[in-house]
Amino acid sequence: MEDNLPVNVREYQELAKKALPKMHYDYINGGAEDEYTLRENIAAYGRILLRPRVLIDVSKIDMSTSLLGYNMPSPIIVAPTGAHKLANPEGEVATARAAAACNTIMMLSFSSSCRIEEVASSCDAIRFYQLYVYKRRDVSATLVRRAESLGFRAIVLTVDTPVLGRREADIRNKMIAPPLSNLEGLMSLDDFDDAEGGSKLERFSRETLDPSLSWKDVEWLKSITSLPILLKGIVTAEDGNE
Ligand SMILES: Cc1cc2nc3c(=O)[nH]c(=O)nc-3n(C[C@H](O)[C@H](O)[C@H](O)COP(=O)(O)O)c2cc1C
């Protein structure tokens, strides 16, 4: 087994494709709208060429940095992604342990398949909580308060998903919205599981996410939490200057 360990991310991806049900692999692997941006993101990294200098003693390399005052060994943190139990029975608890072992920060997704409480008690680490703003503001507010009381250090407001992208593989696979245990008891989750065609995940998102999301909601968020707020998904200088 040891001999066959993957040596790069692509090889992990091949193993994941074999191990996961097609619907779940496609959800993790897929993108929206002709998957143009997905391809372009990968190509963009390929266009960055380094100009390495030589003969400069690289026996000690320090990539450490800090974010919101928290020190980390490298400028790499764990982005929020939903429903880790689709890939691992321990879900976000396993991800939290891995992030803690690397001394890096994990952003726990609003669409986590583990409860915030389980992740918080799984290990000691700096964690941020990612927020979607639902039409039901009370649901979003409750989760912010729960994350705050469980020691999360910042709220990461996702601002590029007022509607879910048209994820083509999910439409073909009639992707089922994964169970979101943090929403249990806060809203009914059964109403979305009907026979309508296409992606049920997309339907769930359409019913729940608030497409009117705007700067006034950043003010609202400030009014309900004393945690620092990070905006995730700004891609233009114009928005950065707001
Ligand atoms: C399977 C999957 C689930 C995701 N779930 C979330 C989520 O719940 N919340 C969020 O803010 N972003 C989510 N994202 C977006 C990622 O956090 C990230 O912004 C995006 O994948 C772009 O980074 P990349 O080019 O490194 O993949 C998700 C991405 C993927 C691929």
From TrEMBL:
<feature type="domain" description="FMN hydroxy acid dehydrogenase">
    <location>
        <begin position="1"/>
        <end position="242"/>
    </location>
</feature>
<comment type="similarity">
    <text>Belongs to the FMN-dependent alpha-hydroxy acid dehydrogenase family.</text>
</comment>
<protein>
    <recommendedName>
        <fullName>FMN hydroxy acid dehydrogenase domain-containing protein</fullName>
    </recommendedName>
</protein>
<dbReference type="GO" id="GO:0016491">
    <property type="term" value="F:oxidoreductase activity"/>
</dbReference>
<dbReference type="GO" id="GO:0010181">
    <property type="term" value="F:FMN binding"/>
</dbReference>
<keyword id="KW-0560">Oxidoreductase</keyword>
<dbReference type="Pfam" id="PF01070">
    <property type="entry name" value="FMN_dh"/>
</dbReference>
<dbReference type="InterPro" id="IPR000262">
    <property type="entry name" value="FMN-dep_DH"/>
</dbReference>
<dbReference type="InterPro" id="IPR037396">
    <property type="entry name" value="FMN_HAD"/>
</dbReference>
<dbReference type="InterPro" id="IPR012133">
    <property type="entry name" value="Alpha-hydoxy_acid_DH_FMN"/>
</dbReference>
<dbReference type="InterPro" id="IPR013785">
    <property type="entry name" value="Aldolase_TIM"/>
</dbReference>
